[in-house]
């Protein structure tokens, strides 16, 4: 029996924006239209999306870092089909399946040191919520410390340790006793921890909003301070884990073992929502410390067989296709290429990158004409400048990228870890062209983005 759903979806492909506008999120559809990102993608393979006109778009966004192994990986698809055909006994709840045990065993073998007790989740934010609860229960201390600009998800607990004003506002009061410290500042961290009453310090090993990378000595220093003051260290690697930075986990770059590691995004190859909290047996046993408390923290879908199978298959692909090494090699090629462009284009002031997680920082130019335009644009809207990079990258070069956060003037790339040297070079050539236009006051780039400012102001 073949389903009608795919046929109907094809039939209604052109209704996508109308449906979304009516039933889901009209403001988002307006944004897509205004910035020209309404390409209506109808297919995807590997590092490429295919739009309704059959044009291939190089996906340097990867679903916010979900598609580390590329889109629609055939091996993971095959494994999922096999699991469905096998009619496994998933989600019995009052029994346990071998598949979640196998994925937990694999994650324990990959995670640093003695991190071996796994709790499966459905998303990144759910992993963060669980990690915060584990830390509070294991230490008996409820205070939490997080970093400025941190992003750990948008449910209320995760939001309480989120360092971005635009997400927090209208939701306060959030959890009490959550303290923010600057990233890369050990002194500020020590000042918050030295009372000995902080349960956890949570940080993204590499910060996603803006792509901020720890200084060489930071993480070791963080580890020492947490040990000294009895605080658990939670590393949120929802985005930077699973090969993204050129190591399986970003903490491996600095040889630091967190007490709790949170992963999600790329774990299922993008097919099924999944995530995991990986911690020590000691911490886990403090939460689940009796038979009555065997469900002290639980969820309904976390251990579902499809997610577990996708996780096993994805990790196999990451290893077999040497994607961690590829992320490092191609990532360095991109970072070097961008730094060469930064020497030539004054507004590209810094390139912060590690593996295939790179932020391009833009800043006020020195030349008179450009400086005036920069100031004017920022007066209109703090977030407009980056559109002068991301819009032509998509429009003229068919490359999808993203703005890295509000008011930061940073464009970010998170390509699949499968990209080739040719893909990297295509991106660098496109950046050269886009930067050239942005540095010319006579071309159309500034006008386009100022018009955009006017249109967004009018439709706000
Ligand atoms: N932590 C980090 C570092 C993230 O980047 C994200 C998502 N961008 C989250 C947590 C939240 O994940 P989710 O959207 O799956 O809840």
Report a brief summary of the structure:
The chain has helices spanning 5-11, 16-23, 26-35, 62-65, 74-85, 98-110, 124-139, 156-160, 165-168, 186-193, 218-229, 281-287, 305-320, 323-344, 368-380, 387-395, 421-438, 445-459, and strands at 41-45, 48-51, 56-59, 117-121, 143-147, 178-181, 198-204, 232-236, 260-263, 275-279, 348-354, 357-362, 399-400, 402-403, 410-413. The protein has 460 residues and is of the alpha/beta class.
Helix content range = 40-55%
Number of helices: 18
| Category from helices, strands and their pairing | alpha/beta
Q: What's the CATH H-level homologous superfamily of the largest domain?
A: Type I PLP-dependent aspartate aminotransferase-like (Major domain)
Enumerate the distinct ligands.
4'-deoxy-4'-aminopyridoxal-5'-phosphate
The Cα radius of gyration reads 23 Å
Which outline best applies? Answer: globular
Number of domains: 2
Strand content: 15-25%
